[in-house]
Fold this sequence. Notes:
It is built from 14 helices and 16 strands. A hairpin with a 2-residue loop joins strand 9 and strand 10. The protein is α/β, with parallel strands linked by helices. The termini are far apart. It has three domains: about 5-135, NAD(P)-binding Rossmann-like Domain (Rossmann fold, 3-Layer(aba) Sandwich); about 140-300, Dihydrodipicolinate Reductase, domain 2 (2-Layer Sandwich); about 350-425, ACT domain (Alpha-Beta Plaits). The chain binds L-homoserine. L-homoserine (HSE) binds near residues 163 and 303. L-homoserine (HSE) binds near residues 161, 190, 203 and 303.
Amino acid sequence: MNEPLRIGVAGLGTVGAGVVRLLQQNADMITKRAGRPIHVVAVNARDKEKARGFSFEDIEWNDDAASLASHRDIEVFVELIGGDEGVAKVAVEKAIQSGKHVVTANKALLAIHGHAMAEAAETAAVTLRFEAAVAGGIPVVKALTESLAGDRIKQVYGVMNGTCNYILTKMESTGKDYQDIFDEARDLGYLEADPKLDVGGIDAGHKLALLASIAFGNRVDFRGMDIEGIEQITFEDIQLAGDMGYRIKLLGIARMSERGLEQRTQPCLVPKDSPPGWIENATNIVVLEGEETGQVFLQGAGAGQGPTSTAVLGDLIDIARGRRISTFGQAASSLTKATPVQDGRDVAYYVRLRILDEPGALAKIAAAFGDAGVSIHRLRQYGRRIDDVSATVLIVTYQTSRQKIKHSLTAVRQSGMTIKPIVSIRIEDV
Length: 430
Ligand code: HSE
């Protein structure tokens, strides 16, 4: 029997407990596949007494994550604590300095400090892997880093926050408001401890920034990303978008052009029959588009114990097999500092207005778009509403720049023909 791979696991929440449980439950299979046993030497968590669904026999308890990170008997430190600062950061840095390989599911940590950590790992000649950080059980990091390493990636996009997708699809199917479904999602335990990470688009943004780095060879740049959450999305917009053949999704999309790196995570309209458009509930989808490969769709569970723990095991088995892959698929020193592109490529826009229902109103609205150089593709007026003086008008523009749409909406406001705030949402033709 080959020498076991000795690991320490910090953080025994859903994922950490799942990793230890699966290592025990599937020990024979994992040993055969890894070529050696994977042995949990020590664990660390906040609460020692909690039942976690695995046996503590032969496992040492360690009260301090940073001291576990440099434990003399481990080769791999598994960080499942979470958070971009504090204990997780200190412990991962300590592990790398101590010459331990690191496996983590911590997207926030790597989205902010990933480049520095990848450099440190290379200097220390250790491996830092993070399959579980992006889209749970979907093997997208491996797909990009390994299988598609020979292709030039044109764009990466997808629905990478299950909670947001659950909220949006439930609003659509029940007709309930955002707050009602948000409360349901919280009761189901879907939301992160800080819900803003989910509904504010931050969690999905962290994941996209990590994928963009592998896809385009840039230093991970979460701060250069355009991020907007789903808090402002109403059932009315979901319904009206549906009428026009679209669904509203929290879409992450990253593209590299000569101008630089465009990264955005925001609510978008996507065609109902597109891959992001068909995703229901808490499922995730990631689409990788390569010059030679074309589109590759990866769809599955983006969270949960089984899927996310399995992703951690995949990284551990790679290390046990002796595979050493750079954190972002190439040497950290060869990753470039990309210029963030805010405006990005032209897209069509969905614009919802409440206009005064009186002679000439539509003409003035149309003129405001025309004067700003924005061409209207489709326009639909819905019947008068309760107040009897205003009507909802929905406009889908042709592709245009963010600047022009901004100018046209300013002109619409100045026309004096609208009441209530104007809603405008990008349409991504994916
Ligand atoms: N909170 C995330 C989601 C899972 O809802 O997809 C962990 O990243």
